[in-house]
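#struct-help
A.M.: can someone run this one for me? Single chain, 516 residues.
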Amino acid sequence: MSKTKITSVVGGEPVDGGRTVASTNPARTADVVGEVAFADAATFVRAAESAKAAQRDWAAVPAPIRGRAIAHIGRLVEDNKEALARLVTAEIGKPYAEALGEVQEIVDTCDFFLGEGRRLYGQTVPSEMPDKQLFTHRVPVGAVAVITAGNFPVAVPSWYIVPALLAGNTIVWKPADYSPVVSAAFHEIFVRGGGLPAGVFNLIFADGEQTFAGLEQSLERGLIDKIGFTGSSAVGREIGALAGRHLQNACLELGGKNPLVITPNADLDLAVEGALFSGFGTAGQRCTSLGTVIVHESVHDEFLARFGKAVEAAKIGDPTQDVLMGPMLDQKFADRYEEYLGWIKPHHTVIGPTGRVTADNPRSGFAGDPAAGLFYHPAVVDGVRADDQLFLEETFGPIVGVITYRDLDEAIDLANRPGYGLSSAIYTTDPQEAFTFRNRIGAGMVSINNSTSGAEAHLPFGGNGKSGNGSRQSGVWVLDQFTRWQSVNWDYSGRLQKAQMDTVELTPDRDFRLES
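D.P.: on it. Structure tokens below:
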């Protein structure tokens, strides 16, 4: 695999940075996937200047033509699907089958939005005045800063970048620092596939401190008109506050503590399958990963027995093989996961081994060499209480808590208690339970007899509470993040007509009564 040095790209030109960092394969940490040169805050500002300067000309390209650019990007992604998926697997350790699905999300997103260039509809609105017309138009917000995490290094960026470009905006993209090689490949496919002019899509590699400083300076200079951020709730608060100081509303997609409720009449085999995938797919490193199973006391023991067997039998290890989960994304996530394991208390019951997979702490049926990478046992923790840290806070990794409930009211209260509100699921065969759950859950996304994970390109994606500020990605709903409504009134009467003052009033006969 090529170990070419990766750099930022500003105005279509590579910009070398100072500090160079190696990006390694978390499944084989001795393997260097590539090297990236980190830029500073000043480079971020230069990228914002470039995006701002290019935005007017890009917005002048007719929207249907921008839609064609999105169509071409989608086809080029499709042509490079396997190669891009292999890069995802190599750089973040996502199982190859999942990586293929992630790349398909880019294709699906492009396929959805390629026609939206012909459907950026406004409206014609009737006026209360004669000889006057009212209109509404969608206009691009301007230059957009997109900051994304690396657990979905290509799918999630496409959720921002595709609709933003389609709507006539330009981009400054800062991807995660631990997925630079796949991010550079994504950027090149988009620029080449879309025939994007220089400055329309800029790429910045920088650490968190320099990114925040560059973003702050760019906002102060009026160079950035919108922020899209995917990451932790803690950083999201800082980004949201920074945007608010400049009277902007950031598009925030943050963490989750996603509940999965199992009712007495649930199909337990299906519930186990859903819990296994949503709890341990991507090694539990999704914002939509299962946090806590909330299971009715009458089926708790049966569910736990089946779930424990399924977790024990699940194949984990080398992500190039057919496995449920691979390694942690990066050493920093492995270190943080060790802290989460410290939240397990004496009143908890742990099903199976926990911690890093080693020769002294082996995993039966492990695929590959556990010593080569950042591999951890999938952990199931029973006896979780509603005031436990393990119940209340996001755990980014392969750990699932289990708590019991007595009635649906209690289950829904437990599901809402952590205060996140991204994704949720209920397993039931009772429609009334399903609709009651949907009506009262605080999550932005609800699954019925399905896992907490699984987004489609034409459905709104996003959360509430600690999971976000109500903004939504995907589908037509994301266009509200990257366009502003402009209202136009055109008076061709030849005189000044004052709204609410010069309107004609029809006089009703309020005294009229039907004869009895």
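A.M.: thanks! The domain at 258-448 is CATH 3.40.309.10 (Aldehyde Dehydrogenase; Chain A, domain 2).
D.P.: also worth noting: Residues 147 and 174 are 5 Å apart (CA to CA).
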